[in-house]
Amino acid sequence: NAGVIQTPRHKVTGKGQEATLWCEPISGHSAVFWYRQTIVQGLEFLTYFRNQAPIDDSGMPKERFSAQMPNQSHSTLKIQSTQPQDSAVYLCASSLDGGNTQYFGPGTRLLVL
Amino acid sequence: GDSVTQTEGQVTVSESKSLIINCTYSATSIGYPNLFWYVRYPGEGLQLLLKVITAGQKGSSRGFEATYNKEATSFHLQKASVQESDSAVYYCALGYGNEKITFGAGTKLTIKP
To answer: Do the Cβ atoms of B99 and A48 come within 8 Å?
Structure first.
């Protein structure tokens, strides 16, 4: 089992550019979660999907951020017009349906210059 | 909303000495939350150390223990004798069912040889 896969591991973008982050959950897991980690705010929940349907996006910034899960094998987090304050480590996690343990990927470190 | 407080950002303990990392929580949703300790070892991803889903119960893993105290709303992490390999960042967290997790700020543990 490869665990949760996140690509790229590192991404550098210029201010105003778009960034797309990819997550492949553990096979058979039905829930996918996105979190963001910064020095100032710590680990924050962004959004999650269950069986590909969006369930809770209460942590997502209202502008520029969007997430999708087009099939059960991957989810994307897209940030439009990136700003320096978007610099963070973005973590994806997955869990079994009915489970309460989330398994985290290694994260994508995004740096916006 | 829910919140988790870890009072110590950094803790240094000599090898073979005992450890306690404090964690208190505030849960606003109906019912008792599930409580977790996650750990990030140097160079590795975030992983579950232990969890307790029933108030009053104790969880244990790798020599660490934590007891779910609903009266004190606490979930302190303890170990009787630490090893150098325990050096890591430890996160206390809470969640409900298979939904989002709320994390504490983390405690960086350094073990002195």
So the answer is: yes
